[in-house]
């Protein structure tokens, strides 16, 4: 099986970016080990702190964030860092070529129940017209990403990665400590019978989205005239790995009861990297009204609604949201 670096070289990825990707994945190998040790290494449970999202930080959130930050700061390849666990951007190496944003441990509520969790990351070219400590480094559309990926800490540790070409899957060979290519080109089926949404939020959905879900639930006896199945992982990285692997539609729509902040998922380090992986696997990634990769972020922790996965199913859902 092919190793990651020769794949990136074959994709003509520039060496500086290959070295940066390698740095991120080295940190993820360490996170994978810590996650795998679970209770044996006293990393479960919560801290007494909250992040800017107002979420209680798990010990592993903090450990993973620190691991990634330290290695990126040391790499010399990164000018500015943004993280779900950091209130503000972190200036790294002046004049370095890239900027990196990440959710160090997406789905951390799954940590204490041994559920799927993962690291989501995205890389852009640094901007020379703003300072290294400016949030405006990340004022770039998702279509400007030079790399997007996640590492899923499941029964096996898997990497989904795109550098602009096909989205590919790699599996971490823990005996050799290297990522091996296991799916050369991910292709999301254009149709699906599987949807992913937190049904307990039904009271906060728009009428259009509620109608869409109701028609899925009616199955063969309704206008869709086919049975649908539902999966909800509680971790976007786990749900999106399933969508990338076997098709589906993943939805986190706006909460109509919270007009001041209707969306939950973060644009910079959740929606955008997943949208790049989805589009480069022949899928579609929208909010309720627009292509995610076309959005110019207004701040690093901006939230957006998400409807992404099998193209025909996303298009169908969007007809209910017009
Ligand atoms: P809910 C995890 O906290 C996350 O940001 C996503 O990874 C996940 O899809 C969603 O929130 C889960 O939200 O409504 O199940 O708590």
From TrEMBL:
Q: Specify whether Ribonucleoprotein is a keyword of the entry.
A: no
Top-level taxon: Bacteria
Which cellular component terms (GO) are annotated to the entry?
A: cytosol
Ranges for domain Fructose-1-6-bisphosphatase class I N-terminal come to 13-183
> Might you give the EC number(s) for this enzyme?
3.1.3.11
Q: Please give the cofactor(s) recorded in the UniProt entry for this protein.
A: Mg(2+)
> What pathway, per the record?
Carbohydrate biosynthesis; Calvin cycle
Query: What GO molecular function terms would the record report?
Result: fructose 1,6-bisphosphate 1-phosphatase activity; magnesium ion binding
**What residues does Mg(2+) 1 bind to?**
84, 103, 105
Q: Where in the cell is it found?
A: Cytoplasm
GO process annotations (BP): fructose 1,6-bisphosphate metabolic process; fructose 6-phosphate metabolic process; fructose metabolic process; gluconeogenesis; sucrose biosynthetic process
Q: Pfam families, from UniProt?
A: FBPase (PF00316), FBPase_C (PF18913)
Q: How is the cofactor bound?
A: Binds 2 magnesium ions per subunit.
Which reactions is this enzyme annotated as catalysing?
beta-D-fructose 1,6-bisphosphate + H2O = beta-D-fructose 6-phosphate + phosphate
Q: Which residues bind Mg(2+) 2?
A: 103, 106, 270
Q: Where does substrate bind?
A: 106-109, 198, 264
Q: Which HAMAP family does the record associate with it?
A: FBPase_class1
Q: Which family does it belong to?
A: Belongs to the FBPase class 1 family.
Subunit details: Homotetramer.
This chain belongs to the protein called Fructose-1,6-bisphosphatase class 1
- State the species of origin: Pseudoalteromonas translucida KMM 520
Query: Which gene codes for it?
Result: fbp
């Amino acid at each position: 099986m092919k190793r990651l670096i020769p794949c990136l070289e074959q994709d003509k990825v520039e060496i500086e970016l290959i070295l940066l990707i390698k740095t991120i994945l080295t940190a993820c190998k360490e996170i994978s080990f810590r996650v795998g040790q679970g209770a044996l290494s006293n990393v479960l449970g919560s801290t007494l702190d909250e992040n800017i999202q107002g979420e209680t930080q798990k010990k592993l959130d903090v450990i993973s964030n620190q691991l990634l930050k330290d290695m990126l700061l040391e790499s010399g390849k990164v000018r500015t860092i943004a993280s779900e666990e950091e209130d503000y951007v972190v200036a790294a190496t002046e004049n370095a070529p890239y900027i990196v944003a990440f959710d160090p441990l997406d789905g951390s509520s799954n940590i204490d129940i041994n559920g799927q969790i993962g690291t989501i990351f995205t890389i852009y070219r640094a901007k020379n017209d703003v300072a290294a400590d400016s949030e405006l480094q990340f004022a770039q559309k998702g279509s400007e990403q030079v790399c997007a990926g996640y590492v899923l800490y499941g029964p096996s540790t898997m990497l989904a990665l795109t550098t602009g070409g096909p989205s590919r899957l790699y599996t971490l060979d823990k005996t050799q400590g290297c990522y091996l290519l296991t799916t050369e080109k991910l292709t999301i089926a254009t149709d699906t019978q599987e949807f992913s949404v937190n049904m307990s939020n039904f009271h906060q959905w728009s009428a259009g989205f509620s109608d869409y879900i109701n028609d899925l639930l009616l199955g063969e006896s309704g206008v869709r005239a086919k049975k649908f199945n539902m999966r909800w992982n509680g971790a976007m990285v786990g749900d999106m790995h399933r969508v990338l692997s076997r098709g589906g539609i993943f939805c986190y729509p706006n909460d109509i009861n919270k007009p001041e902040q209707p969306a939950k998922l973060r644009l910079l380090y959740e929606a955008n990297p997943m949208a790049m992986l989805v589009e480069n696997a022949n899928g579609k990634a929208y909010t309720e009204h627009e292509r995610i990769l076309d959005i110019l972020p207004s701040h690093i922790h901006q939230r957006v609604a998400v409807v992404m996965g099998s193209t025909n199913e996303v298009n169908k859902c969007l007809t209910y949201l017009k």
